[in-house]
């Protein structure tokens, strides 16, 4: 039987007080999901042989959005392609409802550093009942192999970290950063693939002195005017964000890109930061054009959080654009939730997302133990309300008027859509009557409990999670 709210508050407060004195009495398991399944005892032949994927209950964030951890992407759910641990996971659409997903440093074993070290590595995935399902490798028949062949000497920390991938009329383009030790970028390089990621050809390198190293880490997207736009920063998580634009023909020649200066509102050879200040230290970024708006997801080292910014205008100062937090750093000793997600980074939008129903892949790495090294799917609802976006403004333009490279939206099968189907004109009258009755009873219960949520809002996030 669950404890009464007040009893639960006292119990958790006692636990937190003991923890503050150094006595280890965890309130909950330090796992993304309360129960993680065991690895398959035999090698799975495909996704149909994988264990079911648990997901957490939705959590209402302080800004009013609702965030739900939908489950890990790798680990047991990538055993059939040979990836046990990995991070990042930038995505771009392929054919139909499938999309390419490209990870950074990845390992065959179950944790960071265990087994073969591969980077970057790619898979073909899709959405299945609201969760990412890995289907097969981008490269390789059974195991996923590195997309770019390069030699790493024993004891050498050389690695190729992908920034982003984009699909333009069937051609995939990928930009990556050569690192000798994370953050020590040697140069960047761009490749293209005309066979859906099976083989890649280099189309350009960019020296480290370009833009004083602030063009290393990028994310790009094609806009409605035909230009490809890229947000850029350094890979040290201590710099602001810059903006460039270019054509597909220029994509491999970064030094030819036009730079934007928000101070003069002009494009040219002089760059000005579009997002800067004491509260900005840019990490991994993802820029996508969704529902006629620019959706910008970024890990911010200054706030230790994965943040979302949305605007209908890209070339501007983004300092005044509101910020929604979808994953906030916390303690490993407490249950891992959107408000207590230890050592987060990354943040990549899943193809098919909408502003009202956004899926984002966020990475997590316990650098003390290396046991937890994973990419995890988050679902975010309510960003349209938070950013005050009129539903009319999210309707697609006439495709004859503009050339928009918008990711297709496959049919959603989450709980909200199931509810809509029940209430459609095709639903039975008995079902409707039952739902109306349940709704009335729920409303009476809500009135009785109205004072508890008011008190709950003032509690720390860990207490909110425990007292329900």
Write structural notes for this entry.
The chain is mainly β. 13% of the residues lie in helices and 34% in strands. The protein is built from six helices and 23 strands. Strands 1-2-23-22-21 form a five-stranded antiparallel beta sheet, with no helix packed on it. Strands 3, 4, 5, 6 and 7 form a five-stranded antiparallel beta sheet that branches. A five-stranded antiparallel beta sheet has the order 12-13-14-15-16, with no helix packed on it. A hairpin with a 7-residue loop joins strand 21 (344-349) and strand 22. The longest helix is centred in the C-terminal third of the chain and has 20 residues, at 429-448. Mean pLDDT is 83; it is low at 1-30 and 399-468.
Rounded to the nearest angstrom, the radius of gyration is 23 Å
Largest sheet: 5 strands, antiparallel
SSE topology string = HEEEEEEEEEEEEEEEEEEEEEEEHHHHH
End-to-end separation = 14 Å
Q: Helix/strand/pairing class, anyone? A: mainly beta
| Mean pLDDT, all residues | 83
Helical run tally: 6
* Helical percentage: 10-25%
User: What spatial form do the alpha-carbon principal axes imply?
Assistant: globular
> Residue ranges: pLDDT <50 for 5 or more in a row?
1-30, 399-468
Report the β-strand fraction as a percent range.
25-35%
Spatial strand order of the main sheet: 1-2-23-22-21
The counted number of beta strands is 23
């Amino acid at each position: 039987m669950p404890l009464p709210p007040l009893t639960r508050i006292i119990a958790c407060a006692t636990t937190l007080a003991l923890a503050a004195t150094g006595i280890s009495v965890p309130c909950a398991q330090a796992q993304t999901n309360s129960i993680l399944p065991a690895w398959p005892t035999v090698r799975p032949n495909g996704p149909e042989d994988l264990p079911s994927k648990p997901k957490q209950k939705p959590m209402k964030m302080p800004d009013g959005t609702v965030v739900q951890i939908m489950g890990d992407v790798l680990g047991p759910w990538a055993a059939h392609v040979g990836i046990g641990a990995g991070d990042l996971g930038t995505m771009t659409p392929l054919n139909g409802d499938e999309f390419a997903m490209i990870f950074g440093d990845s390992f065959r074993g179950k944790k960071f550093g265990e087994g073969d070290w591969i980077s970057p590595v790619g898979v073909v995935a899709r959405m299945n009942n609201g969760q990412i399902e890995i289907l097969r490798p981008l490269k390789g028949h059974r195991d996923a192999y590195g997309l770019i062949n390069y030699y790493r000497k024993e004891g050498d920390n050389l690695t190729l970290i992908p920034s982003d991938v984009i699909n333009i009329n069937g051609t995939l383009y990928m930009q990556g950063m050569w690192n000798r030790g994370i953050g020590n970028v040697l140069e960047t390089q761009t490749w293209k693939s005309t066979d859906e990621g099976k083989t890649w050809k280099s189309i350009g390198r960019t020296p480290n002195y370009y833009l004083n190293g602030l063009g290393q880490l990028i994310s790009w997207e094609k806009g409605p005017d035909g230009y490809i736009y890229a947000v850029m920063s350094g890979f040290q998580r201590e710099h602001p964000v810059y903006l460039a634009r270019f054509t597909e023909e220029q994509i491999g020649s970064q030094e030819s890109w036009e730079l934007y200066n928000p101070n003069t509102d002009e494009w040219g050879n002089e760059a000005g930061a579009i997002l800067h200040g004491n509260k900005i230290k840019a990490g991994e970024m993802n820029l996508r054009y969704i529902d006629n708006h620019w959706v910008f997801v970024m890990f911010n080292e200054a706030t230790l959080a994965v943040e979302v910014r949305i605007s209908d205008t890209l070339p501007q100062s983004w300092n005044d654009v509101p910020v929604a937090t979808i994953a906030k750093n916390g303690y490993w000793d407490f249950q891992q939730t959107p408000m207590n997600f230890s050592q987060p980074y990354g943040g990549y939008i899943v193809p098919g997302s909408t502003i009202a129903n956004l899926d984002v892949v966020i990475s997590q790495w316990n650098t003390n133990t290396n046991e937890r090294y994973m990419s995890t799917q988050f679902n975010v609802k309510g960003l349209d309300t938070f950013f005050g976006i009129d539903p009319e403004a999210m309707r697609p333009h006439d495709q004859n008027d503009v050339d928009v490279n918008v990711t297709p939206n496959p049919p959603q099968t989450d709980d909200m859509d199931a509810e809509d189907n029940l209430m459609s004109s095709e639903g039975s009258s008995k079902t409707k009557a039952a739902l109306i009755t349940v709704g009335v009873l729920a409303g009476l219960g809500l009135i009785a409990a109205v004072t508890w949520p008011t008190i709950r809002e003032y509690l720390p996030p860990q207490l909110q999670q425990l007292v329900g």
